[in-house]
Write a structure and sequence with these properties.
The complex is a heterodimer. Chain A is mostly helical. Chain A has a single domain, classed as Orthogonal Bundle (Cytochrome Bc1 Complex, Chain D, domain 2), CATH 1.10.760. In chain A, about 50% of the residues lie in helices and about 0% in strands. Chain A is globular. The N terminus of chain A is likely disordered. By secondary structure, chain B is an alpha/beta fold. Chain B folds into four domains: about 45 residues, no CATH class; about 180 residues, Rossmann fold; about 170 residues, Rossmann fold, CATH 3.40.50.1220; about 190 residues, Thiamin diphosphate (ThDP)-binding fold, Pyr/PP domains (Rossmann fold). Helix content of chain B is about 45%, strand content about 15%. Classes of the chains: A mainly alpha, B alpha/beta.
């Protein structure tokens, strides 16, 4: 049983392997689609997420297949995007855009934010 | 009309004059046949004009020193009402004059509002901060209809507002025309479903007793608005010394609030002590700082996590037992839920998925025990469905949560026995889980730090940086800004947060903020802040005029996402569900082409307007400038072009 769990964990951690199988998207096109398809309304411009409406997608760790599945068959209350509306190729473009997003600023460079939060 | 079919101006005017003359002649004839009936109001007849212009007879008395409305002011002044907010209306003209002259415009002071929604809605915000109601006066029929939504929000939020309307007197005393339009047989019929009590007193003594009763009922738990109609004839009738001497004003009762019975609390204490993973959910629980302090005592005694449902400020965000951000897993793992004054117990325990086929399920595990302490069932009406879905509880205690808390604490103390060590161990685990919450919030706030449009996290971080050494108070719920206040700000005092709208009626935020700011001004030394959605603000931008006129300083930050954003998401959801794409979801939901310049709007109403702020780097200086302007007693608005949430 323990070995099975380890194998599953290894499979989950093997994100890049999934990504290699994903269609190669165009990040520039993906950015436009991210806005045009209304993704930003819930996930924010840049896909940085909003606590109550949509999680962070920028630099997503989801494999493309999982990303696509969430798009087609959302787990929670997200609006479903079927292939007629966002074809697989467009989904790949959006995925490429999200993967290409720059890293968030480092907290240590944001002194104003360091002082915040409950202690 | 000319021969070519076009209207000839000269001919048209001639025809109109002939028609007018004919109408006048006909009207005169009809009146003569049916005298003494009054003519229709359209055009005054020659006879009417003569009546208006004729001097009164020598014997006719035209002035008086004392009227019924003066006595009505006496009644209101005994209640200690500080403010009466109103948009003017002729049905209460005598009352208004009595308040500002006979009553010397003090206690209550007359506040000028530009819409009845403001008059009532500012009372909603005021009461939550001041801990006592203020009054509003709305014009008969039309003013009442304007104010109805604000009244509904206050009702849903269980907040007291003393609302007066007025009506012209009996048939024989009504002038033809508009007085009939503004008169209603049953003034409260439109709003009766969402006020706690109403009356249309038919005598001054009745007005006195009804108004005192209304105040007492409004402030007894569960609190809610009340509605009194001031009859026009009673207002304007001459009040002789002899008649005035016969009138009396009853002393206001201050009844104790209903605490839970001892047996029920003992049973609740046993269940709480026996539970392995109890959780406390507090919604409209705390009315005072004492209520907050008592809840801290209970949580620490049990070492139980508290989920802040944000109906009021119930529990400090800085306390290690504050676990609202983990409400999903905490509720899922709980074997006992103690819910304090829930507005929606079913929703606290269950979820429903909003897809084509709606599916529901519990948030809790099987076998969870539920205790509720609430006044909810003491004030339920049939028509409006704000009572929410029925939810069973293992122990449903109908009582005031805050009044019951000291007795529950004592009951728990008596039951703890040898459970203290287990509680301490539970507390250590909760402390460890809590420590990670702040790190997560800061990391998530950093993600969108430099983005344009400006992130809501950045707004709250920049704001806090400027006010952290002040006695700040938030006037908004923060839900539309991703709950950043509760994630990042140390909300520890009861007055620092006042909950949300209650009924979800758009327009609550600017009007309640005005009232909350008024109460904070009177408390002295506070810095009230309202982060207000642009859609919300557009419902009552003129609140800023009232604030400027009455010198009520507060900072409004317009969270300008240029949309009714909740509705954008709803329409997008439907467009996707219907497989039509989201391209047109902006139709009817967004505020673009043209953009609204909120700073100019604010300036137009006499407030300080700053913005629009587009660059995150400009935000800090703009806030500093705004806070500086507030020091001179001015309301300030900063327009921040922002991320959707």
């Amino acid at each position: 049983m323990k070995s099975h769990i380890l194998l599953l964990a290894a499979a989950i951690l093997a994100g890049p392997a999934f990504a290699q199988d994903a269609p190669k998207g165009d990040a520039a096109k993906g950015e436009k689609l991210f806005m045009a398809d209304g993704c930003w309304q819930c996930h924010g411009v840049g896909g940085n997420g909003a606590a109550l409406t949509g999680p962070k997608l920028s630099q997503t760790a989801l494999p493309f297949e999982a990303f696509l599945h969430q798009l087609r068959r959302p787990a929670a209350e997200m609006a479903p995007y079927e292939a007629a509306i966002v074809p697989d190729s467009a989904a790949a473009d959006i995925y490429a855009f999200l993967k290409s997003r720059p890293a968030s600023p480092d907290l240590k460079d944001l002194p104003l934010l360091q002082g915040m939060g409950v202690k | 009309m000319s021969g070519n079919g076009k209207v000839d101006r000269r001919g048209f005017m001639k025809g109109a004059a002939v028609a007018g003359g004919a109408t006048l002649a006909t009207e005169t004839r009809v009146r003569a046949q049916t005298a003494p009936a009054q003519p229709k109001a359209a055009s005054p007849s020659a006879a009417q004009q003569a009546m208006e212009n004729d001097p009164p007879g020598e014997a006719e008395k035209l002035t008086t020193e004392k009227t019924g409305s003066d006595f009505m002011v006496d009644v209101c002044q005994t209640l200690g009402l500080d403010y009466m907010a109103a948009c003017p209306g002729s049905t209460f003209r005598s009352l208004q004059e009595s308040f500002i002259n006979y009553g010397k415009n003090t206690k209550p002071e007359w506040l000028t509002c530009l819409h009845e929604e403001v008059s009532i809605g500012m009372g909603h915000g005021y009461a939550k901060v001041a801990g006592k109601p203020m009054a509003a006066m709305v014009h008969g029929t039309v003013g009442m209809q304007h104010g109805a939504m604000a009244l509904y929000n206050a009702w849903c939020d269980r907040v007291p507002v003393i609302v007066f309307t007025a009506s012209a007197g009996p048939v024989e005393d009504r002038r033809p025309g508009v007085e009939w339009m503004h008169t209603v047989q049953d003034g409260a019929a439109t709003v009766r479903d969402f006020v706690k009590w109403d009356d249309y007193p038919r005598s001054l003594q009745s007005f006195s007793e009804s108004t005192v009763r209304a105040y007492q009922l409004a402030t007894a738990q569960p609190q809610a608005p009340v509605f009194i109609t001031a009859d026009g004839k009673l207002q304007e009738m001459e009040l002789s010394k002899a008649a005035n001497a016969k009138l009396s004003i009853p002393k206001l009762n201050h009844p104790t609030q209903a605490a839970a019975d001892a047996n029920a609390l003992r049973e609740a204490a046993k269940m709480l002590v026996a539970a392995e993973n109890p959780v406390i959910i507090a919604d409209r629980y705390a009315r005072t700082q004492q209520g907050v302090d008592d809840l801290v005592k209970l949580a620490e005694l049990l070492q139980a996590p508290v989920i802040e449902a944000r109906g009021r400020m119930n529990f400090p965000t800085t306390h290690y037992l504050s676990h609202w951000e983990r409400s999903g897993p905490v509720v899922a793992q709980a074997d006992l839920v103690l819910s304090l004054e829930p507005s929606d117990l079913y929703g606290q325990l269950n979820k429903m998925r909003d897809q084509l086929e709606r599916t529901e399920g519990p948030k809790t595990k099987a076998g969870v025990k539920v205790i509720s302490i609430s006044t909810h069932d003491l004030l339920v009406r049939a028509n409006y469905q704000d009572f929410q879905r029925y939810s069973p509880a293992d122990l449903s205690i109908t009582a005031d949560g805050e009044a019951s808390m000291p007795y529950l604490i004592e009951a728990v103390r008596q039951e703890i026995g040898d459970r203290k060590a287990a509680f301490e161990a539970r507390g250590q685990k909760l402390l460890a889980a809590w420590k990670g919450l702040a790190d997560r919030a800061r990391a998530e706030a950093a993600m969108s730090w430099d983005l344009t449009p400006i992130s809501t996290a950045r707004i709250y971080a920049e704001l806090y940086n400027q006010v952290k050494d002040m006695d700040w108070a938030l006037l908004q719920d923060g839900g539309f800004q991703s709950n950043w206040p509760h994630r990042l700000w140390p909300i520890e005092k009861h007055h620092q947060f006042m909950g949300g709208s209650g009924g979800g009626g758009v327009g609550y935020q600017p009007v309640a903020a005005l009232g909350g700011a008024l109460a904070h001004r009177d408390a002295g030394g506070r810095t009230p802040i309202s982060v207000c959605g642009d859609g919300e603000f557009n419902m009552a931008p003129h609140t800023l005029w009232t604030a400027a006129h009455h010198k009520i300083p507060y900072l409004t930050v317009v969270h300008n996402n240029r949309a009714y954003h909740q509705e954008v998401m709803h329409v997008q959801h439907m467009a996707n569900r219907h497989n039509r794409g989201v391209e047109n979801a902006i139709i009817g939901t967004t505020l673009r082409a043209p953009f609204v310049d909120y700073a100019k709007v604010a300036q137009g109403y006499g407030a300080v307007g700053i913005g629009p702020i587009n660059d995150p780097k400009d935000l800090g200086p703009a806030i500093a400038k705004g806070l500086d302007a507030m020091k001179s007693g001015q309301p300030v608005l900063i327009d921040v072009v922002s991320q959707p949430r």
